[in-house]
């Protein structure tokens, strides 16, 4: 836990590094990943571990529609299948083949109806920051064909506020448990869930295709900070009608 809270690596990575003898506590090799250490203890990742951590790869994918980040229903392709050399942008300097990289995991959950930036990384800290860090902003553009009534928009904002409040309660519980073990403040890389906040605003109209041809719609901008996954946003939309 201390390794993750100090931003050295993720919790799972720390377990592996400790097994390899690559973590020290006050200058001595750590032997037990579950051992409690004093807050004042100097925890460090040894040089070889630092090199291993620095060599981990992160890939940014502009995920299109109809691909799922993970846990895809039957018949839905995974966005991971798009990580091939042929899709690499010309300005990318690396020549690594993503298909040959082990431990490359999606850092967020975007379903097949969502398009946009999706990170894949071998570094466990990346997924933790994307999913939980209140300092990381995630912006969603929500297109509502046919528009929305004032009551529907009010209901959506209420649902989003309730989701943020629930995430805040989870954050408080996590913080209480963490404090009982370790008094070091979490900077967002250590696995402690941080409070979420949500902003929702109308940013304009658009013309989309409907059953009867072109139809006007409403475009919303939703800004999320903290532990509030995209699936919760979609659930809030469904509840708001």
Relevant terms:
241 residues; 3-stranded antiparallel β-sheet; flat
Task: Describe, in plain words, how this protein is organized in 3D.
The protein is flat and about 65 Å long. The chain has helices at residues 2-5, 11-19, 47-54, 124-132, 150-181, 230-240, and strands at 23-25, 28-29, 43-45, 58-63, 105-106, 116-121, 137-145, 197-210, 213-225. Residues 181-193 have low confidence and may be disordered. The chain has 241 residues and is α+β, with helices and mostly antiparallel strands. α5 runs antiparallel to α6. The chain has a 3-stranded antiparallel sheet. The chain has a 3-stranded antiparallel sheet with strand order 4-6-5, with helices on one face. A 3-stranded antiparallel sheet has the order 7-9-8, covered by helices on one side. The chain starts with a helix and ends with a helix.
